[in-house]
Amino acid sequence: MTASPGLGTPATAAPGLLRSVFRQHAAGVAVITASGPGPVGFTATSLNSVAAEPPLISFGVGTSSSSWPVLAEAQHVGVHILGEGQQELAATFARSGADRFGPSTDWCRGPEGVPLLGGVVAWLVCRVAARIPAGDHRIVIAEVVAGDPSEGGRPLVYHQGRFTALRD
Predict the structure, then answer these.
(1) What's the pTM value of the predicted model, to 2 decimals?
(2) Chain-wide mean pLDDT for the chain?
(3) 21-49 mean pLDDT
(4) How far apart are CA 72 and CA 23, in angstroms?
(5) Whether residue 132 has pLDDT greater than 60
(6) 133-146 CB burial, b ≥16 within 10 A, e <16
(7) Which DSSP letter does residue 159 get?
(8) Where residue 137 falls among pLDDT bands split at 50, 70, 90?
C-alpha cells in the first residue's frame, strides 16, 4: 500500500503517534471527581455520551493516576463540564501533586457524597456501572442519577496541547 497523494509518509503506530494525532482533535474539558478517604479528581478530555436509555457516559482514567485507587472502588462519580473561563481549574486538576480541593477550589458534597465543583457549565452524578481494562487505562461506564445543566455557558476546549475557547 502506498501513501495517497498529498499525504505524508505514514508513521508507525506508537504512543507518540497517538498523542500527535489527537493534538489535532478538539475535545471538551471535564473534571471527574469521586469520594474516598478524601476527595479526588482529575481533568478529562475523554468524556463521552454513550446511551440515552439508560443514560450512560464513559471516560478513561490512567491506572497510574493518583485518583485511580479511589475510582477503582467508588460507587459514584461526579462529572463537571468546564466553561471557557476555567482554564486554571482544569490545570489544577490536571497537575500532578496539586492541592485540587484546597481553599482556591469552590466545591461541596453533592448527591451520594460526590464532590461537586461550583461555577461549572453543568454537572452530573453517576453510578459506576463498569470498569473496562484498556491498556494502561480503564474505561469507566457510569449511569446518570442526578445533574444540573442550569449554569450554562460556553465550554472550555482542549486543542493543540492547551486549554482554549471556541471562536465565534
Answers:
(1) 0.87
(2) 90
(3) 91
(4) 28
(5) yes
(6) eeeebbbbbbbbeb
(7) E
(8) very high
Q: List residues bridging with 58 in a β-sheet.
A: 48, 141
Alpha-carbon span 17 to 39, nearest angstrom: 34
pLDDT tens-place string over residues 17-28:
877 887 777 789
Distance between CA atoms of 162 and 111, rounded to whole angstroms? Answer: 32
Q: Count of residues for the chain?
A: 168
Query: What amino acid occupies position 25?
Result: H
All three cell numbers of 39: 476527595
Closest to 80 in 3D by CA, of 54, 49, 43, 50: 43
Report yes or no: 101 and 66 within 8 Å, Cβ to Cβ.
Answer: no
pLDDT score for 153: 84
Domains present along the chain, CATH in parentheses: 28-159 (2.30.110.10)
